[in-house]
């Protein structure tokens, strides 16, 4: 049982050992930092996804929210907020752009939560629909083109956006520290707050949670808002790293977020999961992906191998769930 719970950590160590033997300097500080910068994106998405999946839901829209949030922020920096009726264009400081984008992402998540809680739309369908809606709006925002230069101007007081994606603190990229901060906050919420306990209660047994006084619909609404906020944060980081915003940003990233969450031990049936496990799962995907690229593995084989790893993770998760259920029954007897 201990091996099952620590499977993600074991898998990560094995991958690091294998790639370090096959690829020179794979474990060099420079390469590990580069891998971590890639992992950050999937880890933050995965943290938001963990909130959702622990309640027994799913969020297929996060990749599209990444793209739409990047375009939202890119538009505010590149064009400003144009108020045609008044003939005025408002430019926001970068801090305000970041805050507005995070609020925007949370609002999109709230739409998902509203459809699921008020209209009883299955999470798969509600978020699948939002996947297309958000991606469509991202394309409409600039007619499919890119906001190319997000460095801002001193005249408009909106310079400094690049720091988010390329800045460093104590020798590490700022984006890694953001991942750590979000991870610590999320883990604290999960373990130390009533909201976190309610998330597990809803995922474990929704009816029992409702009877015990948990406001199930409020919990569901909030977890989708958290997921949308995390997706918006990723959109900001990507746009900052590229110095540009493209409407196709984040395509299929929802699959990597789900994969990181499942690999980290979060049950697709709900009621079980951890933030640390999800971050570890994101590192497994990142190390596997970057390692295969450095080895020159065909992109097609990369898809096959990654898909196989995800399926294997789900099989192991199901086995763990049945084993825990069996052990619980034996203890009762």
Automatic annotation (TrEMBL):
Q: How does it sit in the membrane?
A: Multi-pass membrane protein
List the InterPro entries.
Answer: ABC_transp_permease
Name the domain of life.
Answer: Bacteria
Primary place of residence? membrane
> GO molecular function: any one?
transmembrane transporter activity
Q: Which GO terms describe its cellular component?
A: plasma membrane
Protein name, entry field:
Sugar ABC transporter permease
């Amino acid at each position: 049982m201990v091996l099952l719970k620590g499977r993600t950590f074991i898998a990560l160590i094995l991958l690091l050992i294998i790639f370090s033997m096959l690829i020179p300097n794979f474990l060099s500080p420079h390469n590990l930092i580069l891998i971590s910068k890639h992992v950050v994106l999937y880890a933050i998405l995965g943290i938001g996804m963990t909130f959702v999946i622990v309640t027994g839901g799913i969020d297929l829209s996060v990749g599209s929210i990444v793209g739409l949030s990047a375009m939202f922020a890119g538009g505010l920096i590149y064009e400003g907020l144009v108020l045609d009726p008044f003939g005025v264009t408002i430019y926001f400081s970068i801090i305000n752009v970041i805050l507005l984008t995070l609020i925007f992402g949370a609002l999109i998540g709230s739409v998902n939560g509203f459809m699921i809680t008020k209209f009883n739309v299955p999470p798969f369908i509600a978020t699948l629909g939002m996947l297309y809606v958000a991606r469509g709006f991202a394309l409409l925002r600039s007619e499919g083109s890119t906001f190319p230069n997000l460095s801002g101007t001193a005249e408009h007081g909106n310079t400094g956006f690049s720091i988010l994606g390329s800045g460093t603190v104590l020798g590490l990229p700022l984006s890694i520290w953001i991942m750590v901060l979000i991870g610590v906050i999320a883990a604290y919420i999960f373990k130390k707050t009533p909201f976190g306990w309610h998330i597990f209660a809803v995922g474990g047994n929704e009816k029992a949670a409702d009877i015990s006084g948990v406001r199930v619909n409020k919990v569901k609404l909030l977890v989708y808002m958290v997921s949308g906020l995390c997706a918006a944060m990723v959109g900001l980081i990507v746009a900052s790293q590229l110095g540009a915003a493209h409407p196709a940003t984040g395509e299929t990233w929802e699959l990597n977020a789900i994969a990181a969450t499942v690999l980290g031990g979060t049950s697709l049936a709900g009621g079980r999961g951890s933030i640390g496990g999800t971050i570890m799962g994101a590192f497994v995907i990142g190390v596997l992906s970057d390692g295969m690229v450095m080895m020159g593995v065909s992109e097609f084989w990369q898809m096959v191998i990654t898909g196989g790893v995800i399926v294997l993770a789900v099989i192991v998760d199901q086995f763990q769930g049945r084993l825990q259920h069996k052990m619980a029954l034996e203890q009762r007897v």
